[in-house]
Each structure stands twice: as structure tokens, then as C-alpha cells.
Amino acid sequence: MSGRATSRVLIVHLAVIALLFLAQFALPAYHHTNVARIMVLAGYALGYNILLGYTGLMSLGHAMFFAAGMYGAGLPVYYLGLGAAGALAAGIAAGVLLAAVFGLIALRTSGVSFLIVSLMFAQAFYLASLYFNEITLGDQGFILSGHLAPLEFGGASLGFHEPAVKYNAALLLFAASLLLSLGLRVSPIGRVLIAIRENEERTRLFGYDSFRYKLLSLVLSGGLAAAAGASYALLFSYVGSTFASILFSIYPLLWTLLGGIGTLLGPLVGTGLMFYLVDVASGMTSAYLLVVGVVLVVLVLWFPQGILGTVRAKWLPWLP
Amino acid sequence: MAAMAAVAPLLETEALCKRFGGLAAVNEVDLHVAPGEIRAIIGPNGAGKTTLVGMICGRLAPTSGRVLYRGREITAMRPWERLMQGIVYTFQVTSIFKGLSCYENVALPAQRGLMRGFATRLALGEQLVADRVHAALDAVGLAGAAAQRADALAYGHQRLLELAMALAAEPQLLILDEPTQGLAEGEIAQLCELVRAISRRATVLVIEHNMPVVLALAERVTVMDSGRIIAEGTPAEIERHPDVQKAYLGR
Are B1 and B123 members of one domain? Predict the structure, then answer.
């Protein structure tokens, strides 16, 4: 990508971040919280997209990385009274470690086999989180409020229950994940990952040890998922095994598909759309999943490459 | 042969074998390629040509025997390490990144030589990569197609793109597997011109079916049949060789 194209892309992404920052002053309280939640979950989807969109590996086990971040951050807070910064670091470390170990084993497979192996690992993780319920409190989960000290910042005390703190912390996480993904995408490594997605054998014969690149991609992907999981625990004050279940492995896949696989802003668009789809539909009818399903089918028919994927194919070919 | 022995070969294989079950696809092959030459390998379908070069570039592991490059054994070296030694392979079936632009196709091999150390993996002077990409696209006459998607190119141009990708990897030993397959007459002439230009900087090993191309291009020709080398010599010698006429030229 040439220098000018890169700066145009950078401006677009910084503008999205600035827009999200300004939105907090305009949004009513209800949507304010929703958008904060969407930004954290979009961080999760961004991590997922590095592996699926930019490396071509489909996982059905990312909930284990999200939950590893959640437990890695939540357990030390609950039992040891660790502060927020330390908890976030611990959560990310847990996800990175899990992704590295998982990758060393699972990346011997690819395609459908990789999908199945990731599913099996995540199920094992989920069952373990139930089995050790004396520590994890199983599917009941545990609440962090009362255990988590507020952030002290230049004399000001920032409690995580305050909406403004929630919102801006979520924005910070999302912005960091987005810029990291963008940096990866335009780096030499990003070029290699995309080449692996397109034709792995050719990439190997051009001098790239594809296993190492796939492992790196998986570790980054798992790390971002864990950062989102840890932030979710800290900001919304709850840790439970539901977040390790298969449903939470399917969500990022859906969000990414909907927003556009292999587009940087697709995960945000997909997460936001899905969130409000469920929100609006469940306000109208108890059969809201039926409505969501129908809308998803229609979207996939009209936007087979996801919303931003289709926008890119038709109008904006420079969109990363 | 006396003249050849004076120069240390760039590439050697010693008793190289590849078996697929009971079939010896390549059987005890000793090949010597001198630096700077254009060597053609010919032979009927199933003679073991692609299998042989597959073991040279590292796509396939030999059953037995050795491969030496610049006098060093590389039999067990992984394919990506061989590329770093200058061994570049282009596929028999066009193998480009169809969904990416021509620029991105060539940028992948072009940036490889520039990625040394950790920092260059995170950021490279894109101008350095771009210079190499444009030089390679220029060399094959695709300078105007940089922004086009690779699968939008005509077939002949896809083969040229593949050659540009190989050039961007800065080959010292370039292995071409049937480069003229599927090309029109005029495109074949252009490709031959290109291969000659490349051979001023690199050694070229080319598998080819088109006899006029072989006779015009190669300095030496190796003939394979049923996994073995049955003859070797200058194009003129090969044309006269009785075994070759029987096995390959069908006279």
C-alpha cells in the first residue's frame, strides 16, 4: 500500500474513533450503555477477524479466549483484590498463553479439521469452567462490584459503575484493537497473512514459514479476544461460564460475517447491527430470534460478502 | 564434458529417488547444472520431471539420495529456507494470488529479501518494496497492470505475472515448470526473450514440452524417461540421439 493510501485509511479509522468519542455526549443513557457494550464486543470481533478475515482460519472456539481473558482478569480481582490495570494484563496474558498452546497443537490442522479441533478445545474449556465450580462459581458466576477498586487518576477517583468511565474505557479498548489490527494489516506481516489466506503453498515457496505466521496471527487474535473478555468483566462487573459456551464462539463469527470478513471496520458494523437487531426485535415480539434469523438471511442474500465487504467490492476498493 | 568439470556445479543431485508406493517416479538421478546455464529437462508425461524439480525446490522430500546447492547439502532444507538461498520455483499450473492485485502478488516475494530482523517485519520502507515490484512488472511488460486484480488478466498475462513474481524474489536458480503451456505463438516468443534476459543474472532450469522452444533456448538438454535420465547433451546432440528419437520424439 502506498504512503498516500495508508494515510487516507488512517484518517478514516481515526475519524470513526473520534465519532464514537463524540457520540457519548449525544446519546441517551440507554444507548450510551449499549454502545459501550458494543465497542467491547467489537474488540472481540476484531480479534476474531484477524484469524478469519486476514489469515483464512475459521475457528469455532474463540469463546475460550474471551473467557480466558474474563477469568484471567476476574479471578484475581475476586480472590486477591487485584487492581484493574493488573487484572487487564493478567487477562490478556491468560488469553495469549492459551492461544499459543492451542496453536502449537491445532495449527497442524487446517480448514474443517481446524474448525472442529477449535470447537473441541473450547468445549473442554467450557466444561472445565463448570467442573471447577468451587473456584469459578460455575454458571452462577460472580460479581466484581465491591471487589474492584476504582481507578485513581490524578486525584480523581473513577469508579467502573460510572457510565462515562465505562464508555471511555470501552472506547479505549476498541481504538487500541482497531489500530493494532490496522497496523498489522499494512505491515509486511499482514501481507504474508493475506497471502496465506489466498494460497498457502505458494506463500511457503516464496520463503515464508507459514506455520509461524499462523501462530502469530492466532496469538494476536486470542490476545485481542482476551483483552475484550477482561474488559467486559471489569466494566460490566460479571464473570460467568456462559461466556465460555459455544454461543459466544458463534457470535464473533456472525458479527464478522455480517459486517464483512477481512474488512477492518466490518466487526464494529456487524456487532452493532446484530446487537440492535436483537434489541429491537425482542421489544416487539417474544419470537425475536425468528425476526433476527429472517433479517440475517435477507442481509446475506443482498450482501454476500458482508456489509462492508460488499461496499468495498462495489464502491471503495481501497478499504482495508 | 571436460569444460563442465572445470566449473563447480551450482546444483547437483546424487542418486536422487522418489517412490510413490511401488512406483519409482524418480530413480537414481544424477543431475549437474553449471552456474549461468539454461538447462532444459524434457521427457514424456510421467517421466518424473516435475517430481525431480519438486525435490530441488523443497516441495517434495526425496525417498533417498542427496541434493547439493553451491556444494552444500540441502536435501533436508525447508522450502522457505531454499528460497532465501535463491532457489525459486514457478508452478506448472498457474499459481498466483487470484484475489489480489498484481502489485500485491509481486510485493509478497519482493519484500521477502528486505525482511531481515524483527523490526522490518512490522514496518518496511514501502518505497523499497514498490521499486522492486515495479521493476519486476516492467521486466515482463505488465507495468500498466499493477492495480488490476490478478484473475482479471488474460491467461498469458497471468503466466507473465507469475514470472514477475519469481523475478521479484531475486532468483539465482530459477526453475520454470512448462512456462509456455497454454500460450499463443507470439507470447511464446516474448517469454523466450524474457528467459534469455533472466539467464544473464541467474541459472535457469526449465521443464518444457515445446521442442522448438527447447532447441532455441537451452544450452544443454537433459532427457528423462520412466524416472531416469536417458540422455544429456547440447540441443543438436539430443536431436540426433537414437534413444531420444525413440522415447520422446517418436521417430
Answer: no
